[in-house]
Amino acid sequence: MPPTEGRETAWVGDKAAYQELYRRSMEDPEGFWMERTRELVSWFKEPEKALEWDFHNPSIKWFQGGTLNVSYNCLDRHLTDGRRNKAAIIWQGEPDEDVRVYTYQMLFTEVNRFANVLRKMGVKRGDRVALYLPMIPELAIAMLACSRIGATHSIVFAGFSAMSLQNRIQDCEAKVLVTADAVLRAGRTIALKPNADEALTGCPSVERCVVVRRAGNDIPMVEGRDSWWHDEMAADDIRHFCEPEHMEAEDTLFILYTSGSTGKPKGVVHTTGGYLTYTASTMQYVFDMHDNDVYWCTADIGWITGHSYIVYGPLCLGGTSLMFEGVPSYPAPDRFWQIVEKFGVNIFYTAPTVIRALMREGVEWTQKHDISSLRILGSVGEPINPEAWMWYHQNVGKGQLPIVDTWWQTETGGILISAMPYATALKPGSATRALPGVDAAIVDSEGRELGPNEGGHLVIRKPWPGMLRGVFGDPERFKSTYFGRFPGMYESGDGARVDEDGYFWVMGRLDDVINVSGHRMGTAEIESALVAHPAVAEAAVVGMPHDIKGESIYAYVTLTADVEESKELIGELRAWVRKEIGPIASPEVIQFADGLPKTRSGKIMRRVLRKIAAGITDEFGDTSTLADPGVISDLLDGRRDLL
Ligand code: PRX
User: Fold this and answer.
1) Separation of CA 408 and ligand 1 centre (Å)
2) What is its cofactor (predicted)?
């Protein structure tokens, strides 16, 4: 049952309040969202029309006729609403003594100055700016600076390789890249600028590269192209104020690349008015953010969770958002709880993989600190298994705190299915119910709605303001990926069921996407990286259950004729994938295979490969269409030899 304490002041205080909001949002979605945006967002010009949409030839337009600026909403208006001296961002660097606090006034000034730096470099409304940065305040500052001048940011997670960065910059033709000398991680300094340099050898669109000095390691600078952040910001002609652009509601705010089941990562496009309204709205509904709260989302801003729930959602509401540069286990597994105590964190949002990793270290680490300031706990990225849920609830939540298990995706912009902490009775392992404005359903492969407890495809039948508006440069892919299979519905790619109480139980991806530690990896992407290696003739990648990561990457590799199998080659292939995509894509297991299970038409039977990877030795289902059924026993033998 939801806690009673905190209920009176909660944005949504009980079940009846949720039901009323939900009913209203379904009966009159346009009225509902118009009201919501008026409450949460300051428009320069009010929108004239709530919504225009078509899910067949997909086109979704929210709040047309309105103009606004995201940085204005996240900063300027808080200078006059009593929050000027409030902490907007509390930054905890990896070394404990590295703390920076930005009040709204301070953040405003930094953002305005950097917006002027970008303008000086010739960045104009609509231009793309790539950000390849560690978790340092300059990342949030650069995002907001882009939004101020109407430039589109494209953030590339700093754990991605030079090649991944290059592909993403090439796809969106960014004009400027902002990066840093290095990333500090678990006590080590990992140079970042060399990756940027390597990427930029193939990016003619990039005219300038701004470098933040984080670690002070020695790095080469390219004359005429590269300059230091601190020099640019200190230049005499950089003023403290930069007039915010008046953006149309449907102007692009950012692009974020994410993996799909086929081909290269796609640039998910999010726009201005709807996205801001939706992230702010869900910030209230799901995290019940209030003015005195210290809120901490442990994600990296390089992923959608950080975009929506470290930067845009919290700052739009004038909240205090904690940003952490380090990792949960360094210098010791109590790092998170030590930070919770140090800053009196009230709302804490993390991922099941983190919980499982900390669980393994033992409960004593949670007991070393006073974490009684915590009020709400959150989870995102994958289904949270009951064991991790209980551990989180008992040891971090002292057996009392609600855990909001939030289901959403890069494409959805914000949370779609989640409990509201004071209004929803929880069931461990269920993301509970659809949020107001979200028409979620489960359908069979023909698109027919299924009844209680029947597993099927999770779809959304009406637009919500935070949804993606396109795939950058590829309208066909936008249509076929999300609207192609079930006419008139958004297809999430996840499998789920709804129980008799209307609670959603998300099972995981139904396509060839693997979820490693809450990060989406496309199998096709990893396969194409592997086959690019001269020793590899063919590769098939599947997910394998993993205790901490949820899933890990299992690769079957067929070598070219004259190449010998060896341990060294396995190491080399792993390093190869790290370099092609990034460390998160590096396979946990590589099994050499003389042949792969293919149907007579040449299609790889992945379901068989998934079972073998999971250690299942029988029950392969119908294998009568296999061209060579003997392949299965060879693969089983190969796996046995591996372990
Ligand atoms: O399979 C779902 C899983 O993560 C996918 C989205 O990944 P990404 O776009 O990287 O965004 C992750 C953070 C929003 C979904 O298709 N997923 C995310 N949250 C949950 C989840 N699965 C179950 N329960 C969740 N709470």
Assistant:
1) 5
2) Mg(2+)
Mean pLDDT score across all residues of the chain: 96
258 in Cβ contact with 410 (< 8 Å)? yes
Tokens 């991605």 correspond to 160
Ligand 1 neighbour 408 (Cβ under 6 A): yes
- Residue 267 Cβ inside 6 Å of ligand 1? The answer reads no
CB distance 415 to 278 below 8 Å: no
Q: How many CB atoms lie within 10 A of CB 294?
A: 18
pLDDT in tens, 135-168: 999 999 999 999 999 999 999 999 999 999 999 9
Q: Is the pLDDT of residue 643 over 80?
A: no
Q: How far does residue 383's CA lie from ligand 1's centre (Å)?
A: 8
Q: Spell 113-134 as b/e; 16+ CB within 10 A means b.
A: bbbbbbbebebeeebbbbbbbb
Residue-level pLDDT at 1: 84
Map 23-63 to HEC letters.
Answer: HHHHHCHHHHHHHHHHHHCCCCECCCEEEEEECCCCEEEEE
* pLDDT digits 0-9 by tens, 83-93: 999 999 999 99
Measured from the CB, is residue 418 less than 6 Å from ligand 1?
no
The two structure tokens encoding residue 50: 């709530």
**CA-wise closest residue to 345 among 318, 369, 322:** 322
Largest CA distance in the chain: 74
Q: Are 261 and 523 in contact (CB under 8 A)?
A: yes
- Would the CB of 380 count as within 6 Å of ligand 1? yes
What is the interface pTM, i.e. ipTM, of the complex? 0.99
Write out the two tokens for 148. 């101020």
Q: Is the CB of 388 under 6 A from ligand 1?
A: no
Please name the residues in contact with 89: beta carbons below 8 A apart, sequence gap of 6 or more: 100, 101, 102, 107, 137, 140, 315, 320, 321, 322, 323
Amino acid at 314: P
pLDDT by residue (tens digit) across 412-454?
Answer: 999 999 999 999 999 999 999 999 999 999 999 999 999 999 9
Q: Known binding site for Mg(2+): residues?
A: 531, 533, 536
